[in-house]
Structure formats: structure tokens, C-alpha cells
Write a structure and sequence with these properties.
InterPro entries: HOTDOG_ACOT, HotDog_dom_sf, Thioestr_dom. By secondary structure, this protein is mainly β. The chain has one helix and seven strands. The strands form two sheets. It has a five-stranded antiparallel β-sheet, with helices on one face.
């Protein structure tokens, strides 16, 4: 998908802080993006089944661009297929704001073209006995 196609879908927007930095140069590890994917998955499951469910497994994860302290990240997800208790999902994370080097320490800019920093797909499970809706609401 491209950035515009995600409009209106479940998402989160977060600012990456200095406390999220794991590597030299203010670089954040990929596990942070996976945490955000899990948060979006939880919302998708609540909307679909009325339960947070559990993340069973990722079958694909790609880290495509670096993420640093000061970046703003938007994370989107959608359910792409459903079984009796399983929900196959797809996620993308975009950098939408980043710090500006060589300016004031607090200078940032809104990116005119958001940068795809990570994408993933995986499967979540909501046990049938925990599903509160007879038909999915997404």
C-alpha cells in the first residue's frame, strides 16, 4: 500500500524519544516498530472481536529505513484474512516528522513524502470463547 491508502484505518502516531534509542547515533532498534505493530494489532482485534487476543507469529518483517530519536512515526494495520480464531494482519510504519540537522537542537520538519520505515505481516488469535461479536466489525 502507499501512505494515502491508509487514510481512515486504525493507526497510532508516536514520537520517538531519547529513551527509545538503543544504538549509537540516536538509532532505535527494530523491536520498537514491532511493539507498535502489536499495539495496532490489539486495536484491530478489539474492533473485530471485542477482545485483545494474542499475537501468534510474524511471518514477514522488513526494516526499510532508520528511525531516530525525534522522529514521529505513524503505524497502520489491517486484517487481510480471518479464520475461525485466527486473524492474518498486515502493517506499515511511516516516518512523518524528523529532526533537522544543523539547525536549532529542537528543529524538526514535516516530511512532504512520508518514509516507509518498516512493514510486517503476522497472525493473531482470539479464542472462539473470547470473541464477543458474531460477525467481525471491521
Amino acid at each position: 500500500m502507499n501512505y494515502e491508502e491508509w487514510n481512515g484505518r486504525p493507526s497510532i502516531r508516536v514520537r520517538i524519544s531519547e529513551s527509545d534509542v538503543h544504538y549509537a547515533g540516536g538509532l532505535v532498534d527494530g523491536a520498537k516498530m514491532m511493539q507498535f505493530f502489536g499495539d495496532v494489532a490489539t486495536e484491530l482485534l478489539i474492533r473485530a472481536d471485542g477482545d485483545e487476543g494474542l499475537f501468534r507469529a510474524y511471518d514477514m518483517v522488513e526494516f526499510l529505513a532508520p528511525v531516530h530519536a525525534g522522529d514521529y512515526i505513524e503505524v497502520y494495520g489491517k486484517i487481510i484474512s480471518s479464520g475461525k480464531s485466527s486473524r492474518k494482519m498486515y502493517f506499515e510504519a511511516y516516518k512523518v516528522v524528523c529532526p533537522v540537522e544543523g539547525k536549532a537542537p529542537s528543529a524538526c520538519e514535516l516530511l512532504t513524502v512520508p518514509v516507509l520505515v518498516a512493514r510486517a505481516s503476522g497472525t493473531c488469535v482470539v479464542p472462539v470463547e473470547n470473541q464477543r461479536y458474531k460477525t467481525q466489525r471491521i
